[in-house]
Amino acid sequence: MKVVKLLLATSNAKKVEEIRKILPSGFELLTLKDIGFSEVIPETTNTIVGNSSQKAWFVFNRTGLNCLSDDSGLEINALGGRPGVDSAHYAGMPPDNVKNIDLVLKEMGELQERGARFVTVMTLILDGNEHQFEGEISGAITRSPIGTNGFGYDPIFVPAGFETTFAHMEAVDKNMISHRAKALEKLNEFFASKA
Ligand code: IMP
Fold first, then answer.
1. Is 127 a catalytic residue?
2. I want to staple 7 with a disulfide (CB 3.0 to 4.6 A). Which of 67, 103, 156, 165 is the partner?
3. The domain defined by 4-194 carries CATH number 3.90.950.10
4. Ligand 1 centroid to 54 CA: how many Å?
């Protein structure tokens, strides 16, 4: 496979770090910072699929570079799928991970049904054509935060089949099973099938 050069259409440094660690060699990743892109990227649709597409097209239209966006969120069964598309700013603006977690735990109280899933939709704009790759992982919400690794809701999410939260696992373990890992595996297969 020849080297694939992609601009990551995200200003979330934690997502960039995970994507870099997950993607195999063969990808050369540029960040918005690398190219001095500092515009605020709009996310104004009301779905993860829509926002993912919107972010990728915005950056592609401004730069003309092949790019990859990541829109993701936590969907909790007992909360009817919330925080979902509002995950980043669930407790209001500006986005605050601690406040978001506090609000989720408060809303869930002592509920027995604690099932949830992380989802991501990655949009690739390649030579002006859009391709989307989805990944999800099921799990459960804890009753209090555990661990300090990762980002966002990692301290309260235990992936199915594991005993502890994403934030209490090593990054390398999260990156083998996460929603992001699954979407990137599809992206990798897409490029491999074109080679
Ligand atoms: P957006 O994709 O920028 O709209 O924001 C996604 C939000 O979902 C993040 O700010 C986190 O709060 C949450 N999120 C997405 N992926 C993860 C993850 O892997 N771990 C923890 N939280 C995540």
1. no
2. 67
3. yes
4. 17
